[in-house]
Amino acid sequence: MVRLKNIQKEYNGSVAVDDLNLEIEKGQFVVLIGPSGCGKTTTLKMINRLIEPTSGSVFINGEDVTKVNPVALRRKIGYVIQQIGLFPNMTIMQNIEVVPKLLKWPADKRRERAQELLRLVEMDPEVYGDRYPSELSGGQQQRIGVLRALAAEPPLILMDEPFGALDPITKELLQDELKKLQTSLGKTIVFVTHDMDEALKLADYIVLMKDGRVVQADAPEELLSNPKNEFVAEFIGKHRMNSNFCIDEVKDVMKTKPVTATREKGIGESIALMKSRNVDSIIVVDKAGRFEGIVTIGRIMTDGKNHKNISRLVEEDVPVVKMDSNAKEAFDLLIQNKLDFIPAIDDDNVVKGLITKSSIAKAMAEVVWKGADND
Q1: Which residues partner with 295 through β-bridges?
Q2: Span 45-78, pLDDT tens digits
């Protein structure tokens, strides 16, 4: 898909990228990471010719990008940055349709594509389509930035620290959405970050750079378990795998403070609660906090108009895990059943937390793999 061959970039005699060679396969999620000034953003920008290499070649699908008009090249590559850059005088629909319009897609095709993408991230086009960027939250604006990059169906997307300015909760939600989109759409993504947690969560392949060179490029598991040298081990730090690691319990890796409500919660109140906590499900408990089931926004939207409260919308046949059960087994249950989360309960059936998809990545980095401080 993408091949960088003997790439060199110099600025006034100073080397920013030094003889870099890298191959990125179709459908792969590759993360470039390293300390500030290591050359990761420069490398990213040379792929779509925002920066021209001093020497060497960049190939996309076997074609040398230097032989392609840079404007035409960029219209075929999605690009997302931290600052987003939405056009303030355009509606959300118009922002998403920018590149398809430049490519002269018919108006109905552009609109259909924009609506489809908004639904993919659960933003109703009837609600959000005619709004302006200033009417959205930072997280919602960043979603639109990602959708705009996807709009013209590019096979390749470049992302330069797109979630760096967001709060941790919003960042985590968008990471989940991005990984889900990449998996379902089969896009090739090259992603720059300085956050190792983010790299471990998203990447199929991590490229760790220092002083313009690739120090180690491997799958996350290999990078963690077999760091190539002392720099790699120190950069990974607490994430480094200890060969004698033990599996921790659910209580050590679960998210606390889940969103809960009793069966008497009104339909409108439940929707407002979900919106305020940015979730699509509520865990239903009795007055003592004991688990009774879940209610999803989908069920409310489908059947809620026929009820005053959520009592008859509760899905009771939902897997749960005990707080003191094995975290690895809980993760396996989550993956095998394609669940978004699993409630964690104590011996009295009281809800204490959640195991989520993002818990897997965090547990891998912070719990299951012991830190360097323990070596």
Answers
A1: 282
A2: 999 999 999 999 999 999 999 889 999 899 889 9
Instruction: State the Cα–Cα distance between residues 201 and 274, nearest whole angstrom.
Output: 25
Whose structure tokens read 């230097």? 66
Contact 266, 158 (CB under 8 A): no
**What does residue 39 show for φ and ψ, rounded to 5 degrees?**
105, 10
Average pLDDT over residues 252-265: 88
Q: Are 28 and 1 contacting, i.e. CB atoms less than 8 angstroms apart?
A: yes
347 Ramachandran zone, left/alpha/beta (phi>0; psi -120 to 50): alpha
Q: What is the mean pLDDT of the chain?
A: 86
User: What is the token pair recorded at 115?
Assistant: 């609506």
Alpha-carbon gap, residue 35 to 235, rounded angstroms: 8
Distance CA 320, CA 302 (A): 25
pTM above 0.85, yes or no: no
What pLDDT is attached to residue 361? 59
Burial class (CB in 10 A: 0-12, 13-18, 19+), 62: exposed
Instruction: Evaluate the CA torsion angle 366, 367, 373, 375 in order and state its sign.
Output: negative
Q: How far apart are CA 122 and CA 305, in angstroms?
A: 20
Rg, the chain, Cα only: 23
Give me the residue label for tokens 């809620």. Answer: 304
pLDDT at 266: 92
Look at residues 346, 348, 291 and name the one whose alpha carbon lies nearest to residue 324: 346
Q: Could you tell me where the DSSP H helices lie in the chain?
A: 40-47, 70-75, 92-96, 98-102, 107-120, 125-128, 138-150, 168-185, 196-202, 220-225, 230-236, 250-253, 267-277, 297-303, 327-336, 357-363
